[in-house]
Amino acid sequence: MTSPVLQTGRLMAALTLSLSVVAVSPALAEHRQAPDEPTIDAMGVISQKVVHRSGAHASATRSMAPPAGSTAAASQPITYHNGPVMTSVSKVVVIWYGNWNQADGTDTPAGQQIIRDALYGLAQAAPSGYTNYAGVTTGASSTLGHFTQSNPAGAVSQISSVNLVEVPQAASSAYGGTNLSDSSVQALVKAAANAPGVGADPNAIYLVLSSGEIGERSGFLTQYCGWHTYSTISGQTLKYGFIGNPKKNIAACNANTTGVSPNGNPGVDAMVSVIAHELEETATDPLLNAWWNAGGSENGDMCAWTFGASPTKISSTNTATNGAYYNVTLPAKSGSRSYLIQRALASSNSKCYVNANGQVQ
Fold it and tell me: What span, in angstroms and rounded, lies between the C-alpha atoms of 137 and 147?
């Protein structure tokens, strides 16, 4: 089933669940050859951002297993285009925008902890019995290859960090209140970068994570579930992204069975899948000129909304199957958590994988 055609300032494309070729506009091709720093137009929109398109395949009455996706190599392989990658991630700066202390079962401190645990797990070399999801992109499995850069020589070694810096920010008129723009997302990153104890760190990834009452008027929940870009802030080239809680239209960004999720929080669990997608792309294509294919698709785009043959239903604490699917088990600081996360791309063969350890597709 094919998603609706979605339009952004960066690309116009149709995406199918079989990961067919993504058409790219001439403007994008020109940008790829000679990228300029992303700019903000009069409407507050950053055209040079990479969006993770919404899961238009999702259904409000979804009951089937999430789509497995192809195990073959992509018809347009992802290749290197001379730009830098993030060889390491010093820290992840999470800007919690909105109200994360609600009595709605999703925008809660417990929901924040689900995300903290995911960011921690995605930074780990998976021990025995865990799923080495991040290792697909980082080359932890020797046969899956590395996303490299040529000058200076280096390769992506992680997509997240155990060093987490958190910046709470209530909805404020200074940032558009409950209706963010791309420019206000950038302003939130700038404010965090200038805050004591945070700083402008070019080796960090900054994530604006909004609670469910917050909109993003460049297309959240109608065109995309998240996006990433970069900007010069306080003299440093900072990489950042936006991911919101999709509770207002959960089907747009959630591929799990309706009303359930591995951690009992469908909105936040859906965010984790998008966060992983944006981390992969930020690490492998931070300035939008490193790793992508002839159609303009980055790492996460190549595997979007596919979850492999391995998803199984997870059981709740009372041992009754709750109907939620998961495909990844990541270590947390205490114990582990399971998630349903879109697959990652291997650089060696342009195939999508759930796991580097065992090479599960």
Answer: 7
Q: CA-CA distance, 82 to 88, in Å (whole number)? A: 18
Q: CA 133 to CA 121: how far, in whole Å?
A: 9
Please answer whether residues 249 and 215 qualify as being in contact, where contact means their C-beta atoms are separated by less than 8 angstroms: no
Q: Tell me, what's the pLDDT at 167?
A: 98
Only one residue has tokens 């709750």, namely 322
Residue 342 and residue 303 in contact, taking contact as beta carbons nearer than 8 Å: yes
- Residues 88-114 have pLDDT tens digits of 999 999 999 999 999 999 999 999 999
CA distance 226 to 57: 17
pLDDT at 30: 32
> d(Cα 80, Cα 290) in Å, to the nearest integer?
5
Q: How many CA atoms lie within 13 A of 221 on its CB side?
A: 17
Alpha helix ranges (H) inside 91-134: 109-121
E strand intervals along the chain:
6-7, 12-13, 50-53, 79-80, 92-97, 148-150, 153-155, 164-169, 179-180, 205-210, 215-216, 224-233, 236-244, 291-292, 312-315, 321-326, 328-331, 336-339, 344-345, 352-353
Is 185's pLDDT higher than 70? yes
Cβ-in-10-Å burial (0-12, 13-18, 19+) of 166 comes to: middle
**Residue 38 in this model has a pLDDT that exceeds 70:** yes
DSSP β-bridge partners for residue 3: none
pTM: 0.90
The one-letter amino acid code at 124 reads Q
Assess contact for 286 and 85: CB atoms under 8 A.
yes
Sequence-separated (6 or more) residues with CB below 8 Å from residue 357: 126, 130, 131, 132, 135, 140, 141
Pairing of strands 6-7, 12-13: antiparallel
- Residues 84, 263: Cα–Cα separation, whole Å: 36
For the chain, the residue count is 361
pLDDT tier, 54 (very low <50, low <70, confident <90, very high otherwise):
confident
